[in-house]
Protein backbone atom coordinates (compact mmCIF):
# COMPACT_ATOMS: atom_id res chain seq x y z
CA UNK A 1 0.00 0.00 0.00
CA UNK A 2 1.62 3.32 -0.99
CA UNK A 3 2.11 5.93 1.70
CA UNK A 4 1.00 9.29 0.43
CA UNK A 5 2.79 12.48 1.35
CA UNK A 6 0.37 15.13 2.56
CA UNK A 7 0.60 17.43 -0.45
CA UNK A 8 1.44 14.90 -3.11
CA UNK A 9 -2.04 13.86 -4.02
CA UNK A 10 -4.15 15.59 -6.55
CA UNK A 11 -7.62 14.57 -7.41
CA UNK A 12 -9.36 15.94 -10.45
CA UNK A 13 -12.86 14.70 -10.92
CA UNK A 14 -13.01 14.37 -14.69
CA UNK A 15 -11.45 11.25 -16.13
CA UNK A 16 -9.52 11.37 -19.40
CA UNK A 17 -8.08 8.74 -21.63
CA UNK A 18 -4.74 8.90 -19.83
CA UNK A 19 -6.26 9.00 -16.39
CA UNK A 20 -7.64 6.30 -14.15
CA UNK A 21 -11.38 6.20 -13.66
CA UNK A 22 -13.10 8.73 -11.44
CA UNK A 23 -12.96 6.28 -8.57
CA UNK A 24 -9.21 6.32 -8.55
CA UNK A 25 -6.68 8.78 -7.28
CA UNK A 26 -3.40 9.68 -8.93
CA UNK A 27 -0.12 10.84 -7.58
CA UNK A 28 0.54 13.62 -10.01
CA UNK A 29 3.77 13.30 -11.92
CA UNK A 30 3.95 9.56 -11.29
CA UNK A 31 0.85 8.30 -13.06
CA UNK A 32 1.78 4.67 -12.56
CA UNK A 33 1.13 5.02 -8.85
CA UNK A 34 -2.63 4.92 -8.76
CA UNK A 35 -4.80 3.37 -6.10
CA UNK A 36 -8.42 2.64 -5.36
CA UNK A 37 -9.69 5.40 -3.15
CA UNK A 38 -13.21 4.26 -2.58
CA UNK A 39 -12.41 0.69 -1.74
CA UNK A 40 -12.07 -0.22 1.90
CA UNK A 41 -8.39 -1.08 1.60
CA UNK A 42 -7.12 2.50 1.26
CA UNK A 43 -8.09 5.57 3.26
CA UNK A 44 -8.27 8.44 0.82
CA UNK A 45 -5.98 11.25 1.94
CA UNK A 46 -6.53 14.65 0.45
CA UNK A 47 -3.85 17.32 0.60
CA UNK A 48 -6.13 19.72 2.39
CA UNK A 49 -7.29 17.19 4.98
CA UNK A 50 -7.55 18.72 8.43
CA UNK A 51 -7.04 22.32 7.36
CA UNK A 52 -10.43 23.35 8.73
CA UNK A 53 -9.54 22.12 12.19
CA UNK A 54 -6.32 24.13 12.25
CA UNK A 55 -6.60 27.49 13.99
CA UNK A 56 -5.82 30.60 12.05
CA UNK A 57 -3.68 33.01 14.05
CA UNK A 58 -5.36 36.21 15.23
CA UNK A 59 -5.20 39.17 12.88
CA UNK A 60 -2.51 41.66 13.83
CA UNK A 61 -3.39 45.22 14.91
CA UNK A 62 -6.83 46.53 15.94
CA UNK A 63 -9.64 46.42 13.38
CA UNK A 64 -9.77 50.17 12.77
CA UNK A 65 -6.02 50.49 12.22
CA UNK A 66 -5.97 47.32 10.12
CA UNK A 67 -8.79 48.48 7.85
CA UNK A 68 -7.24 51.92 7.48
CA UNK A 69 -3.94 50.30 6.50
CA UNK A 70 -5.15 47.57 4.16
CA UNK A 71 -8.41 48.99 2.74
CA UNK A 72 -8.51 52.79 3.00
CA UNK A 73 -4.88 53.82 2.70
CA UNK A 74 -3.68 51.19 0.22
CA UNK A 75 -0.36 51.86 -1.51
CA UNK A 76 -2.37 52.93 -4.57
CA UNK A 77 -4.27 55.51 -2.52
CA UNK A 78 -1.09 56.65 -0.76
CA UNK A 79 0.64 57.25 -4.11
CA UNK A 80 -2.46 59.07 -5.34
CA UNK A 81 -2.34 61.22 -2.17
CA UNK A 82 1.35 62.10 -2.61
CA UNK A 83 0.80 63.24 -6.23
CA UNK A 84 -2.39 65.10 -5.32
CA UNK A 85 -1.08 66.93 -2.26
CA UNK A 86 2.22 67.82 -3.96
CA UNK A 87 0.14 69.48 -6.67
CA UNK A 88 -2.11 71.15 -4.09
CA UNK A 89 0.98 72.63 -2.40
CA UNK A 90 2.26 74.06 -5.70
CA UNK A 91 -1.20 75.45 -6.50
CA UNK A 92 -1.43 77.24 -3.16
CA UNK A 93 2.12 78.60 -3.52
CA UNK A 94 1.33 79.90 -7.01
CA UNK A 95 -1.79 81.72 -5.88
CA UNK A 96 0.15 83.23 -2.97
CA UNK A 97 3.17 84.33 -5.02
CA UNK A 98 1.44 85.31 -8.26
CA UNK A 99 0.00 83.32 -11.10
CA UNK A 100 -0.82 83.68 -14.79
CA UNK A 101 -3.04 81.58 -17.04
CA UNK A 102 0.09 80.71 -19.07
CA UNK A 103 1.89 79.18 -16.10
CA UNK A 104 -1.25 77.33 -15.00
CA UNK A 105 -1.62 75.98 -18.54
CA UNK A 106 1.93 74.61 -18.43
CA UNK A 107 1.35 72.77 -15.14
CA UNK A 108 -1.97 71.42 -16.45
CA UNK A 109 -0.29 69.91 -19.50
CA UNK A 110 2.57 68.56 -17.35
CA UNK A 111 0.07 66.66 -15.18
CA UNK A 112 -1.82 65.31 -18.19
CA UNK A 113 1.54 64.23 -19.58
CA UNK A 114 2.36 62.27 -16.41
CA UNK A 115 -1.14 60.74 -16.32
CA UNK A 116 -0.89 59.48 -19.89
CA UNK A 117 2.70 58.28 -19.67
CA UNK A 118 1.91 56.19 -16.59
CA UNK A 119 -0.46 54.14 -18.75
CA UNK A 120 1.98 53.85 -21.65
CA UNK A 121 2.86 50.19 -22.24
CA UNK A 122 6.62 50.72 -22.50
CA UNK A 123 6.70 52.99 -19.46
CA UNK A 124 4.71 50.48 -17.38
CA UNK A 125 7.02 47.66 -18.50
CA UNK A 126 10.08 49.76 -17.69
CA UNK A 127 8.80 50.33 -14.13
CA UNK A 128 8.21 46.60 -13.70
CA UNK A 129 11.61 45.74 -15.23
CA UNK A 130 13.43 48.02 -12.79
CA UNK A 131 11.45 47.26 -9.61
CA UNK A 132 11.30 43.48 -10.10
CA UNK A 133 15.01 43.24 -10.91
CA UNK A 134 15.78 43.17 -7.18
CA UNK A 135 17.58 39.85 -6.55
CA UNK A 136 15.86 37.18 -4.46
CA UNK A 137 18.85 37.27 -2.09
CA UNK A 138 18.08 40.82 -0.95
CA UNK A 139 16.23 41.39 2.36
CA UNK A 140 12.57 40.43 2.25
CA UNK A 141 11.34 43.80 3.54
CA UNK A 142 13.00 45.56 0.59
CA UNK A 143 11.65 43.09 -1.97
CA UNK A 144 8.16 43.49 -0.50
CA UNK A 145 8.46 47.24 -0.87
CA UNK A 146 9.61 47.02 -4.50
CA UNK A 147 6.91 44.46 -5.27
CA UNK A 148 4.23 47.11 -4.69
CA UNK A 149 5.15 48.49 -8.12
CA UNK A 150 1.79 47.37 -9.48
CA UNK A 151 0.15 50.22 -7.54
CA UNK A 152 1.77 52.71 -9.91
CA UNK A 153 -1.67 53.47 -11.37
CA UNK A 154 -1.96 55.80 -8.35
CA UNK A 155 0.39 58.17 -10.19
CA UNK A 156 -1.89 58.04 -13.25
CA UNK A 157 -5.07 58.87 -11.35
CA UNK A 158 -3.35 61.36 -9.02
CA UNK A 159 -1.93 63.30 -11.99
CA UNK A 160 -5.19 63.04 -13.98
CA UNK A 161 -7.30 64.44 -11.13
CA UNK A 162 -4.69 67.11 -10.33
CA UNK A 163 -4.41 68.07 -14.02
CA UNK A 164 -8.17 68.57 -14.13
CA UNK A 165 -8.04 70.79 -11.05
CA UNK A 166 -5.17 72.76 -12.61
CA UNK A 167 -7.28 73.14 -15.75
CA UNK A 168 -10.19 74.45 -13.67
CA UNK A 169 -7.75 76.93 -12.13
CA UNK A 170 -6.53 77.87 -15.62
CA UNK A 171 -10.12 78.50 -16.71
CA UNK A 172 -10.89 80.57 -13.61
CA UNK A 173 -7.66 82.59 -13.87
CA UNK A 174 -8.06 83.09 -17.64
CA UNK A 175 -11.65 84.26 -17.24
CA UNK A 176 -10.58 86.65 -14.49
CA UNK A 177 -7.71 87.98 -16.67
CA UNK A 178 -10.09 88.42 -19.61
CA UNK A 179 -12.80 90.18 -17.58
CA UNK A 180 -10.31 92.51 -15.87
CA UNK A 181 -8.33 93.06 -19.07
CA UNK A 182 -5.32 91.95 -17.06
CA UNK A 183 -3.65 89.68 -19.61
CA UNK A 184 -3.57 88.77 -23.29
CA UNK A 185 -5.78 85.68 -23.13
CA UNK A 186 -8.30 85.44 -25.98
CA UNK A 187 -11.91 84.31 -25.99
CA UNK A 188 -10.99 81.38 -28.26
CA UNK A 189 -8.34 80.15 -25.78
CA UNK A 190 -10.82 80.41 -22.93
CA UNK A 191 -13.53 78.59 -24.87
CA UNK A 192 -11.21 75.68 -25.59
CA UNK A 193 -10.04 75.57 -21.96
CA UNK A 194 -13.63 75.27 -20.68
CA UNK A 195 -14.43 72.66 -23.35
CA UNK A 196 -11.45 70.52 -22.34
CA UNK A 197 -12.49 70.87 -18.70
CA UNK A 198 -15.90 69.39 -19.55
CA UNK A 199 -14.26 66.49 -21.41
CA UNK A 200 -11.78 65.72 -18.62
CA UNK A 201 -14.57 65.94 -16.02
CA UNK A 202 -16.55 63.35 -18.02
CA UNK A 203 -13.53 61.07 -18.42
CA UNK A 204 -12.87 61.13 -14.68
CA UNK A 205 -16.57 60.78 -13.80
CA UNK A 206 -16.94 57.69 -15.98
CA UNK A 207 -13.68 56.24 -14.63
CA UNK A 208 -14.89 56.20 -11.01
CA UNK A 209 -14.65 52.63 -9.64
CA UNK A 210 -18.42 52.04 -9.29
CA UNK A 211 -19.08 52.92 -12.95
CA UNK A 212 -15.95 51.21 -14.23
CA UNK A 213 -16.84 47.86 -12.68
CA UNK A 214 -20.57 48.12 -13.50
CA UNK A 215 -20.04 48.98 -17.16
CA UNK A 216 -16.44 48.33 -18.12
CA UNK A 217 -16.87 48.36 -21.91
CA UNK A 218 -18.63 51.75 -21.85
CA UNK A 219 -15.94 53.11 -19.55
CA UNK A 220 -13.26 51.97 -21.99
CA UNK A 221 -14.99 53.50 -25.00
CA UNK A 222 -15.55 56.83 -23.24
CA UNK A 223 -11.96 56.81 -21.98
CA UNK A 224 -10.66 56.16 -25.50
CA UNK A 225 -12.84 58.47 -27.61
CA UNK A 226 -13.18 61.32 -25.10
CA UNK A 227 -9.43 61.00 -24.43
CA UNK A 228 -8.57 61.33 -28.12
CA UNK A 229 -10.96 64.27 -28.52
CA UNK A 230 -9.54 65.98 -25.44
CA UNK A 231 -6.01 65.50 -26.82
CA UNK A 232 -7.01 67.24 -30.05
CA UNK A 233 -8.60 70.09 -28.08
CA UNK A 234 -5.50 70.44 -25.87
CA UNK A 235 -3.34 70.78 -29.00
CA UNK A 236 -5.52 73.67 -30.21
CA UNK A 237 -5.52 75.20 -26.73
CA UNK A 238 -1.72 75.01 -26.44
CA UNK A 239 -1.29 76.76 -29.80
CA UNK A 240 -3.85 79.46 -28.90
CA UNK A 241 -2.36 80.02 -25.42
CA UNK A 242 1.17 80.25 -26.86
CA UNK A 243 -0.12 82.71 -29.45
CA UNK A 244 -1.76 84.84 -26.75
CA UNK A 245 1.45 85.07 -24.72
CA UNK A 246 4.05 85.21 -27.52
CA UNK A 247 4.53 89.00 -27.37
CA UNK A 248 6.76 90.18 -30.24
CA UNK A 249 8.03 86.70 -31.12
CA UNK A 250 6.70 84.79 -34.14
CA UNK A 251 4.20 82.00 -33.40
CA UNK A 252 6.59 79.40 -34.86
CA UNK A 253 9.43 80.54 -32.60
CA UNK A 254 7.17 80.67 -29.56
CA UNK A 255 5.84 77.15 -30.24
CA UNK A 256 9.29 75.63 -30.70
CA UNK A 257 10.28 77.14 -27.35
CA UNK A 258 7.07 76.11 -25.59
CA UNK A 259 7.35 73.22 -23.12
CA UNK A 260 3.61 72.32 -23.37
CA UNK A 261 4.00 71.94 -27.15
CA UNK A 262 6.76 69.34 -26.72
CA UNK A 263 4.87 67.56 -23.97
CA UNK A 264 1.86 67.36 -26.31
CA UNK A 265 4.09 65.99 -29.03
CA UNK A 266 5.27 63.14 -26.75
CA UNK A 267 1.71 62.51 -25.47
CA UNK A 268 0.38 62.17 -29.02
CA UNK A 269 3.22 59.90 -30.13
CA UNK A 270 2.70 57.74 -27.06
CA UNK A 271 -1.06 57.43 -27.68
CA UNK A 272 -0.48 56.59 -31.35
CA UNK A 273 2.34 54.08 -30.81
CA UNK A 274 0.24 50.98 -29.91
CA UNK A 275 -2.02 51.67 -32.90
CA UNK A 276 0.94 51.64 -35.28
CA UNK A 277 1.27 47.99 -34.29
CA UNK A 278 -2.37 47.17 -34.96
CA UNK A 279 -2.66 44.06 -37.09
CA UNK A 280 -4.92 41.12 -37.79
CA UNK A 281 -3.08 37.89 -37.12
CA UNK A 282 -3.87 34.22 -37.65
CA UNK A 283 -4.95 32.36 -34.55
CA UNK A 284 -5.50 28.66 -33.94
CA UNK A 285 -8.48 28.38 -31.61
CA UNK A 286 -9.14 25.22 -29.65
CA UNK A 287 -12.43 25.10 -27.79
CA UNK A 288 -11.69 23.43 -24.45
CA UNK A 289 -15.27 23.24 -23.19
CA UNK A 290 -18.51 25.25 -23.05
CA UNK A 291 -16.63 27.57 -20.69
CA UNK A 292 -13.21 28.07 -22.22
CA UNK A 293 -11.29 28.46 -25.46
CA UNK A 294 -7.52 28.49 -25.92
CA UNK A 295 -6.11 30.62 -28.73
CA UNK A 296 -2.65 29.75 -30.05
CA UNK A 297 -0.43 32.40 -31.67
CA UNK A 298 2.98 32.36 -33.27
CA UNK A 299 5.72 34.19 -31.36
CA UNK A 300 6.51 37.65 -32.74
CA UNK A 301 2.84 38.42 -33.29
CA UNK A 302 3.36 41.36 -30.97
CA UNK A 303 6.94 41.73 -32.15
CA UNK A 304 7.93 39.78 -29.03
CA UNK A 305 11.38 38.41 -28.73
CA UNK A 306 12.02 35.74 -27.70
CA UNK A 307 8.78 35.19 -25.71
CA UNK A 308 6.29 37.11 -23.55
CA UNK A 309 7.40 37.65 -19.96
CA UNK A 310 5.40 35.64 -17.39
CA UNK A 311 2.89 38.00 -15.82
CA UNK A 312 2.30 39.99 -19.01
CA UNK A 313 -0.96 40.51 -20.88
CA UNK A 314 -1.72 40.97 -24.55
CA UNK A 315 -4.73 42.79 -25.95
CA UNK A 316 -6.99 41.26 -28.56
CA UNK A 317 -10.10 42.46 -30.34
CA UNK A 318 -12.66 41.43 -32.91
CA UNK A 319 -13.58 45.07 -33.55
CA UNK A 320 -10.60 47.37 -32.87
CA UNK A 321 -12.54 50.63 -32.55
CA UNK A 322 -15.08 49.22 -30.14
CA UNK A 323 -13.55 46.94 -27.55
CA UNK A 324 -10.28 45.38 -26.44
CA UNK A 325 -9.75 42.57 -23.97
CA UNK A 326 -6.52 41.68 -22.19
CA UNK A 327 -5.52 38.09 -21.48
CA UNK A 328 -2.40 36.50 -20.09
CA UNK A 329 0.20 35.33 -22.61
CA UNK A 330 0.75 31.65 -21.84
CA UNK A 331 3.77 29.94 -23.45
CA UNK A 332 3.28 26.45 -24.82
CA UNK A 333 6.25 24.53 -23.43
CA UNK A 334 8.41 22.90 -26.08
CA UNK A 335 6.81 24.71 -29.02
CA UNK A 336 7.15 27.94 -30.98
CA UNK A 337 3.70 29.06 -29.95
CA UNK A 338 2.18 30.93 -27.10
CA UNK A 339 -1.46 31.08 -26.16
CA UNK A 340 -4.29 32.80 -24.36
CA UNK A 341 -6.79 30.93 -22.22
CA UNK A 342 -10.14 32.70 -22.35
CA UNK A 343 -12.96 31.62 -20.10
CA UNK A 344 -16.58 32.65 -20.22
CA UNK A 345 -17.12 35.91 -18.39
CA UNK A 346 -19.60 37.89 -20.50
CA UNK A 347 -21.05 38.41 -23.98
CA UNK A 348 -17.70 38.88 -25.72
CA UNK A 349 -16.04 35.77 -24.28
CA UNK A 350 -19.20 33.71 -24.85
CA UNK A 351 -19.13 34.72 -28.53
CA UNK A 352 -15.44 33.79 -28.72
CA UNK A 353 -16.09 30.33 -27.28
CA UNK A 354 -19.16 29.65 -29.45
CA UNK A 355 -17.63 31.01 -32.64
CA UNK A 356 -13.84 30.73 -32.23
CA UNK A 357 -11.92 33.01 -34.59
CA UNK A 358 -9.24 32.03 -37.10
CA UNK A 359 -7.95 35.63 -37.18
CA UNK A 360 -7.93 38.27 -34.49
CA UNK A 361 -6.72 41.86 -34.03
CA UNK A 362 -3.75 42.57 -31.77
CA UNK A 363 -2.06 45.87 -30.94
CA UNK A 364 0.78 47.26 -28.91
CA UNK A 365 2.98 45.00 -26.84
CA UNK A 366 2.24 42.72 -23.86
CA UNK A 367 2.11 44.73 -20.65
CA UNK A 368 3.26 43.60 -17.21
CA UNK A 369 0.80 43.16 -14.37
CA UNK A 370 0.79 42.18 -10.73
CA UNK A 371 2.02 38.64 -11.42
CA UNK A 372 5.41 39.92 -12.58
CA UNK A 373 6.36 40.37 -8.91
CA UNK A 374 6.50 36.59 -8.42
CA UNK A 375 10.11 36.48 -9.62
CA UNK A 376 11.24 38.49 -6.58
CA UNK A 377 10.46 35.70 -4.13
CA UNK A 378 12.20 32.42 -3.45
CA UNK A 379 9.17 30.40 -2.41
CA UNK A 380 5.70 31.34 -3.62
CA UNK A 381 2.23 29.89 -3.20
CA UNK A 382 0.18 30.66 -6.30
CA UNK A 383 -3.60 30.65 -5.89
CA UNK A 384 -5.87 30.46 -8.94
CA UNK A 385 -9.61 30.09 -9.16
CA UNK A 386 -11.00 28.91 -12.49
CA UNK A 387 -9.41 30.73 -15.40
CA UNK A 388 -7.01 32.46 -13.02
CA UNK A 389 -4.68 29.64 -14.05
CA UNK A 390 -4.18 31.45 -17.40
CA UNK A 391 -1.94 34.18 -15.98
CA UNK A 392 -0.40 31.89 -13.34
CA UNK A 393 0.61 29.05 -15.68
CA UNK A 394 3.47 31.01 -17.33
CA UNK A 395 4.95 31.68 -13.88
CA UNK A 396 4.85 27.96 -13.11
CA UNK A 397 6.41 27.09 -16.47
CA UNK A 398 9.20 29.65 -15.96
CA UNK A 399 10.39 28.04 -12.69
CA UNK A 400 11.85 31.30 -11.41
CA UNK A 401 11.43 30.06 -7.82
CA UNK A 402 10.18 27.15 -5.73
CA UNK A 403 6.41 27.23 -5.99
CA UNK A 404 3.26 25.51 -4.93
CA UNK A 405 -0.08 25.91 -6.71
CA UNK A 406 -3.58 25.91 -5.27
CA UNK A 407 -6.09 25.78 -8.13
CA UNK A 408 -9.78 25.61 -7.28
CA UNK A 409 -12.48 25.22 -9.86
CA UNK A 410 -15.36 23.18 -11.02
CA UNK A 411 -14.53 20.15 -13.16
CA UNK A 412 -11.10 21.54 -13.96
CA UNK A 413 -9.85 18.94 -16.42
CA UNK A 414 -13.09 18.98 -18.36
CA UNK A 415 -13.21 22.77 -18.44
CA UNK A 416 -9.58 23.50 -19.30
CA UNK A 417 -8.49 20.37 -21.15
CA UNK A 418 -5.72 17.84 -20.68
CA UNK A 419 -2.95 19.84 -22.35
CA UNK A 420 -3.14 22.72 -19.91
CA UNK A 421 -3.78 20.61 -16.81
CA UNK A 422 -0.93 18.24 -17.67
CA UNK A 423 1.47 21.10 -18.36
CA UNK A 424 0.53 22.73 -15.05
CA UNK A 425 0.93 19.55 -13.02
CA UNK A 426 4.23 18.84 -14.76
CA UNK A 427 5.42 22.30 -13.67
CA UNK A 428 4.25 21.66 -10.10
CA UNK A 429 3.87 17.93 -9.43
CA UNK A 430 2.59 18.71 -5.94
CA UNK A 431 -0.05 21.18 -7.10
CA UNK A 432 -3.24 21.10 -5.07
CA UNK A 433 -6.14 20.97 -7.49
CA UNK A 434 -9.41 21.32 -5.67
CA UNK A 435 -12.63 20.41 -7.42
CA UNK A 436 -15.31 22.66 -5.96
CA UNK A 437 -18.07 20.71 -7.65
CA UNK A 438 -17.01 17.64 -5.72
CA UNK A 439 -15.82 19.05 -2.41
CA UNK A 440 -17.75 22.34 -2.19
CA UNK A 441 -16.08 25.72 -1.81
CA UNK A 442 -13.11 25.70 0.54
CA UNK A 443 -12.26 28.33 3.12
CA UNK A 444 -9.65 29.93 0.88
CA UNK A 445 -7.95 31.99 3.58
CA UNK A 446 -7.49 28.98 5.85
CA UNK A 447 -6.41 26.66 3.06
CA UNK A 448 -3.95 29.16 1.61
CA UNK A 449 -2.58 29.93 5.06
CA UNK A 450 -1.99 26.24 5.69
CA UNK A 451 -0.17 25.90 2.37
CA UNK A 452 1.98 28.93 3.15
CA UNK A 453 3.01 27.40 6.47
CA UNK A 454 3.55 23.87 5.09
CA UNK A 455 5.54 25.17 2.15
CA UNK A 456 7.33 27.89 4.11
CA UNK A 457 6.43 30.42 1.43
CA UNK A 458 7.68 33.99 1.36
CA UNK A 459 4.65 35.29 -0.51
CA UNK A 460 1.28 34.46 -2.03
CA UNK A 461 0.07 35.59 -5.44
CA UNK A 462 -3.62 35.13 -6.20
CA UNK A 463 -5.61 35.51 -9.42
CA UNK A 464 -9.31 35.19 -8.79
CA UNK A 465 -12.55 37.16 -8.89
CA UNK A 466 -12.51 40.54 -7.14
CA UNK A 467 -14.28 39.67 -3.84
CA UNK A 468 -12.21 36.54 -3.27
CA UNK A 469 -8.94 38.26 -4.20
CA UNK A 470 -9.64 41.03 -1.70
CA UNK A 471 -10.70 38.54 0.96
CA UNK A 472 -7.60 36.36 0.62
CA UNK A 473 -5.16 39.27 0.34
CA UNK A 474 -6.69 40.97 3.40
CA UNK A 475 -6.96 37.71 5.36
CA UNK A 476 -3.28 36.96 4.79
CA UNK A 477 -1.80 40.46 4.98
CA UNK A 478 -3.56 41.12 8.27
CA UNK A 479 -1.88 37.96 9.61
CA UNK A 480 1.54 39.05 8.43
CA UNK A 481 1.69 36.93 5.25
CA UNK A 482 2.73 38.97 2.17
CA UNK A 483 0.02 38.56 -0.48
CA UNK A 484 -0.41 40.08 -3.92
CA UNK A 485 -3.52 40.26 -6.09
CA UNK A 486 -5.05 42.44 -8.77
CA UNK A 487 -6.35 45.85 -7.63
CA UNK A 488 -8.80 46.53 -10.49
CA UNK A 489 -7.52 50.01 -11.20
CA UNK A 490 -7.82 49.94 -15.00
C1 LIG B 1 -4.63 39.80 -13.36
C2 LIG B 1 -5.73 38.96 -13.96
C3 LIG B 1 -5.50 38.27 -15.13
C4 LIG B 1 -6.50 37.50 -15.73
N1 LIG B 1 -6.24 36.84 -16.88
C5 LIG B 1 -7.21 36.08 -17.43
C6 LIG B 1 -6.98 35.32 -18.62
O1 LIG B 1 -5.90 35.35 -19.19
N2 LIG B 1 -8.00 34.58 -19.11
C7 LIG B 1 -9.23 34.53 -18.50
O2 LIG B 1 -10.12 33.86 -18.99
N3 LIG B 1 -9.47 35.21 -17.38
C8 LIG B 1 -8.50 35.98 -16.84
N4 LIG B 1 -8.75 36.67 -15.70
C9 LIG B 1 -10.06 36.56 -15.08
C10 LIG B 1 -9.93 35.62 -13.90
O3 LIG B 1 -9.36 34.41 -14.26
C11 LIG B 1 -11.25 35.39 -13.27
O4 LIG B 1 -11.81 36.61 -12.90
C12 LIG B 1 -11.15 34.61 -12.00
O5 LIG B 1 -10.21 33.60 -12.04
C13 LIG B 1 -12.48 34.03 -11.74
O6 LIG B 1 -12.59 32.80 -12.40
P1 LIG B 1 -13.91 32.30 -13.01
O7 LIG B 1 -14.45 33.33 -13.89
O8 LIG B 1 -13.62 31.00 -13.64
O9 LIG B 1 -15.03 32.14 -11.85
P2 LIG B 1 -15.08 32.11 -10.31
O10 LIG B 1 -16.40 32.65 -9.94
O11 LIG B 1 -13.96 32.74 -9.59
O12 LIG B 1 -15.04 30.54 -9.98
C14 LIG B 1 -13.91 29.74 -10.19
C15 LIG B 1 -13.90 28.68 -9.13
O13 LIG B 1 -13.52 29.24 -7.90
C16 LIG B 1 -14.44 28.90 -6.92
N5 LIG B 1 -14.69 30.04 -6.06
C17 LIG B 1 -15.19 31.22 -6.45
N6 LIG B 1 -15.36 32.03 -5.36
C18 LIG B 1 -14.96 31.31 -4.30
C19 LIG B 1 -14.91 31.58 -2.90
N7 LIG B 1 -15.30 32.75 -2.40
N8 LIG B 1 -14.43 30.63 -2.09
C20 LIG B 1 -14.03 29.45 -2.56
N9 LIG B 1 -14.06 29.13 -3.89
C21 LIG B 1 -14.53 30.03 -4.73
C22 LIG B 1 -15.73 28.54 -7.62
O14 LIG B 1 -16.44 27.58 -6.90
C23 LIG B 1 -15.27 28.01 -8.93
O15 LIG B 1 -15.13 26.63 -8.87
C24 LIG B 1 -7.77 37.43 -15.10
C25 LIG B 1 -7.99 38.13 -13.92
C26 LIG B 1 -7.00 38.88 -13.35
C27 LIG B 1 -7.28 39.59 -12.07
UniProtKB/TrEMBL annotation:
The keyword Transmembrane helix applies. Residues 13-26 have a biased composition (Low complexity). The chain crosses the membrane at residues 75-98, 104-128, 149-169, 189-210, 222-242, 254-275. Keywords: Membrane, Transmembrane, Transmembrane helix. Residues 1-29 are annotated as: Disordered. Signal peptide: none annotated. InterPro entries: Adenylate-forming_domain (IPR052979). It comes from Cylindrobasidium torrendii FP15055 ss-10. This is Nonribosomal peptide synthetase 12.
Amino acid sequence: MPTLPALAYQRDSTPTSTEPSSKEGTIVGTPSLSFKSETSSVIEKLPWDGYLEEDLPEKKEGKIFRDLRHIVFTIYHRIFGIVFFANAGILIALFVYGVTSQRLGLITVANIFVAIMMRQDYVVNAFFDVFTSVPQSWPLWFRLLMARVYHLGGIHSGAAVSGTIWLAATCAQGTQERVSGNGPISVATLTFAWLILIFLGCIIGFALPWFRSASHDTFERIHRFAGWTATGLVWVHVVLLTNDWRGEKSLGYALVHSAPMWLMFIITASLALPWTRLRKVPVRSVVLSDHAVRMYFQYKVFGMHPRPVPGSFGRVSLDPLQEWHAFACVPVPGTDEWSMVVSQAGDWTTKLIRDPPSEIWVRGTPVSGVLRVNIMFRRVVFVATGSGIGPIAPCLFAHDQEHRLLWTGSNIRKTFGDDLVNAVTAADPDAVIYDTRKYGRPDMVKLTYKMVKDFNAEAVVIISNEPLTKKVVYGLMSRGVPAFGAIWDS
